[in-house]
Amino acid sequence: MELHVAAEELNPLVPHLSEIIVGTIAFVLLLWLLSRSVFPQFERVYAERTDRIEGGLKRAEEAQEQAIALKRQYEEQLAGLRAEAARIRDDARAEGNRIRAELREQAEQEAGRIRQRGEEQLAAQREQTVRSLRSEIGGLSVQLAERIVGTSLADDARRRETVDRFLADLDGIADERDDGHVAARGTSATGAPSGGAS
Fold first, then answer.
1. Is 103 among the domain residues?
2. Backbone angles phi and psi of 191, in degrees to 5
3. Which position has the higher pLDDT, 79 or 170?
4. Distance separating alpha carbons of residues 190 and 139, to the nearest angstrom
5. Are the C-beta atoms of residues 153 and 166 closer than 8 Å to each other?
6. Does residue 28 lie within any of the structural domains?
7. Does the pTM of the predicted model rise above 0.90?
8. Is the pLDDT reported for residue 187 higher than 50?
9. In total, how many domains does the chain have?
10. Section 127-151 average pLDDT
11. Which residue range forms the structural domain that includes residue 146?
12. What is the model's pLDDT at position 177?
């Protein structure tokens, strides 16, 4: 019987009660130490990684939304700028047409003024030439009349009357000559001979 009790005490498969108590205390201490220092760090690292991953995804979504909003805003600004450029082109084209019309009108007015000034100068020169020719022809006709008549036309009234009569006769001759040219032109236009036999 003593052998049996000694065999039970020496059995290596059955732990001793003191070993079980010491092992249990050591396990509880180790578990307490891990729960105080290591497990919180694991939880913190896990939370940080989760937050980093979820935050990264959220930031990526926000960045994508911002990029879409910026793209939409850029497209709206680009459309506005295109419309503004088209409006500026239209305004510039209208302004160019208006300036061209104003310049054309100014040029036509200036040409009209130049034409009128030229006609006035031409009329004044014609009048001056007619007056000069009248005085010269008048003087020559008076001298001719004095020679023909043999008397002096010293009286201004008689001289003026003679000059006027002579100039009226010259105008009548010029009118007859103009009528003859018109008649000659009319007969040549109808096919009749315009001149005599030569």
1. yes
2. 105, -5
3. 79
4. 44
5. no
6. yes
7. no
8. yes
9. 1
10. 74
11. 15-152
12. 72
For position 26, what pLDDT does the model report? 93
Whole-angstrom CA distances from 136 to 104, 139, 149, 168 are 47, 5, 19, 15
Residue 51 lies in a domain: yes
- The pLDDT score that the predictor gives to residue 97 is 92
| Locus of tokens 């100014």 | 106
Task: Name the CA radius of gyration of the chain, rounded.
Answer: 66
Q: What is the mean pLDDT of the chain?
A: 79
Domain assignment present for residue 22? The answer is: yes
Cβ-Cβ contacts under 8 Å for 53 (sequence gap 6 or more): none
Amino acid identity, residue 55?
Answer: G
| Rounded alpha-carbon distances, angstroms, from residue 90 to 7, 27, 41, 78, 99 | 115, 90, 71, 18, 14
Instruction: Give which of 74, 6, 37 is closest to 29, Cα–Cα.
Output: 37
Greatest Cα pair distance, the chain, in angstroms, is: 209
SS3 (DSSP) at 151: coil
Task: Write out the two tokens for 26.
Answer: 């050591």
